[in-house]
Amino acid sequence: MPTQTLDREVVIIGSGPAGLTAAIYSARASLKPLLIDAPADAEKQTVPGGQLMITTDVENYPGFAKGIDGPALMEEFRKQAERFGTEFLEEWIDSVDLSERPFLLKTRNYEISTQTLIIATGASAMWLGIPGEAKVPDGFGGNGVSACATCDGPLPGFRNQPLVVVGGGDTAMEEATFLTRYASKVYVIHRRDKLRASKIMQDKALHNEKIEFVWNTEVEEILGEDQAGVTGVRLRNVVTNDESRLPCSGVFIAIGHKPNTALFKGQLDMDDIGYLITAHRSTATNVPGVFACGDVQDNCYRQAVTAAGTGCMAALDAERFLDHLPVAMPSGEEVTIEDEHVTEDHQAIIRADGSMIPNHPEMAAKEE
Ligand code: NDP
C-alpha cells in the first residue's frame, strides 16, 4: 500500500535523453518536475539513464567534438536537470490511471497525482540471448556487439572489416546498407529464406554488392577475445543442421525493438508494435495532458539527439497546456486544459459543456 502522496503539475517517466531534456526545460520553466525512473535491475535489464548507459563512445551527439562516453553524457544531462530543481524518484510504477485529471500513478511507496504526464520510457532493443552477446565483461556487448549501426558503425574497429547483421526486417536492411560505407563486407544472417523487410529496402540491400545474405541460418554464439573483441560467429543452418564459423569484427543485432508501453495499454493509442501515437504537430497523445517523447513514440530515428529534441517539445507542450493554451492532438483538433476543443479547420471552439462558439476574435466577441 502506498504510504506517501505527492501532487505535481508535471511528472516525467524515464531518464534517458528524452526524459532528462523534458526535465531541464520544465524545471527551467519553474514547473518543478518530478522525474520517476525504474531502479537499476540486472534481471529486468533496467538502468536509469536509458540505452546510452550501455554504449561506450558517443561520437554523434552535437557539442562533443571529441566524442563522449554514453554514461558520462547521461551524467551531464542529469546534473543539468538537477541544477534547475528537478526532483528524482527511483521507483517501479505499478499502475497509471489516465481516465481523469489529475492523473494518478501508484508505486510501492507513493501515490502521485499530476496535471500533466510526460512519457519517456524508451524502447529496448531485442537480443538473441546467445553466448557472447552480453555486455562486457560477461560477453562482447560494447566491444564488437551492438544494436545500433548509426551509433557504432563508424567506430575505428569496424573500418574495412567484415561485419555481421542479424535479422530480416527493415532495420536489418537499413543497418546492413549503412554499414557498407565502412565495412569490407557485410553478411546478413537471416533465420528464414524470405525477408520480412519492405520491397524497397530489400531491393537496396539485395543489389548492394558488399552485402551477402546467409539464409536459413541462426547465430548460435558470438566468438571473441577479451582485448580484440569480436572475432567471429558460430552459425547453424536450420534446414541442414550444419554448423560453421564466420570470421567478423562486429555483430549488429537488428531483430526489432520493444517500446516500454505495457503500463499504458488500453489507455493510450498505440500502433501494432506498441509505440505510442502522438500528434503530427506536437507530442500530445490521445489523452489531453499526456505527452510522449523519445523512442517510446519513434521507431524511425531512434537517436539520442532526436530523443532530446522531442523531450524539449514535450516540456513546451506541457507548459503550453498548463498555461491554458490549446495543444494539437493526434485527432487533428486542439484541446485546452478546460476541455475546450478547437476544430481541425480552426473555425470553431467546442466548450466542455458542448456549446460551440466561432474561433474568430470579432465574431466570438459578438456572441459573448
Ligand atoms: P521486424 O519485427 O520487422 O523484423 C525483425 C526481424 O528479425 C525479422 O526478420 C525476424 O525474423 C528477425 N528475428 C526476430 N527475432 C529473431 C530471433 N530471435 N532470431 C533471429 N531472427 C529474429 O523489426 P524491425 O526493427 O526490422 O522493424 C520494426 C518496424 O520498424 C517495422 O514496421 C519496420 O517497417 C519499421 N522500420 C522502418 C524503417 C524505414 O522505413 N526506414 C527502418 C527500420 C524499421 P522473421 O522474419 O523470421 O520473423
Describe the structure.
The chain is α/β, with parallel strands linked by helices and 368 residues long. It has helices at 17-28, 70-83, 149-152, 170-179, 199-206, 304-322, 361-367; strands at residues 4-13, 34-37, 57-58, 68-69, 87-90, 93-97, 103-107, 110-119, 123-125, 145-146, 162-166, 185-189, 211-214, 217-225, 229-237, 243-247, 250-253, 257-259, 290-292, 327-328, 334-335, 341-342, 348-350, 356-358. The strands form six sheets. Strands 1, 2, 5, 6, 7, 8 and 19 form a seven-stranded mixed β-sheet that branches. Strands 10-17-11-12-13 form a five-stranded parallel β-sheet, with helices on one face. Strands 20-21-22-23-24 form a five-stranded antiparallel β-sheet. The longest helix is centred in the last third of the chain and has 19 residues, at 304-322. The protein is elongated, with a radius of gyration of 23 Å. The site of NADPH dihydro-nicotinamide-adenine-dinucleotide phosphate (NDP) has 17 residues, from α4.
Strand and helix map with partners:
Blueprint: E1 4-13, H1 17-28, E2 34-37, E3 57-58, E4 68-69, H2 70-83, E5 87-90, E6 93-97, E7 103-107, E8 110-119, E9 123-125, E10 145-146, H3 149-152, E11 162-166, H4 170-179, E12 185-189, H5 199-206, E13 211-214, E14 217-225, E15 229-237, E16 243-247, E17 250-253, E18 257-259, E19 290-292, H6 304-322, E20 327-328, E21 334-335, E22 341-342, E23 348-350, E24 356-358, H7 361-367
Parallel strand pairs: 1-2, 1-8, 2-5, 8-19, 10-17, 11-12, 11-17, 12-13
Antiparallel strand pairs: 3-4, 6-7, 7-8, 9-18, 14-15, 15-16, 20-21, 21-22, 22-23, 23-24
Helix pairs in contact: 1-2, 1-6, 4-5
This protein binds NADPH dihydro-nicotinamide-adenine-dinucleotide phosphate.
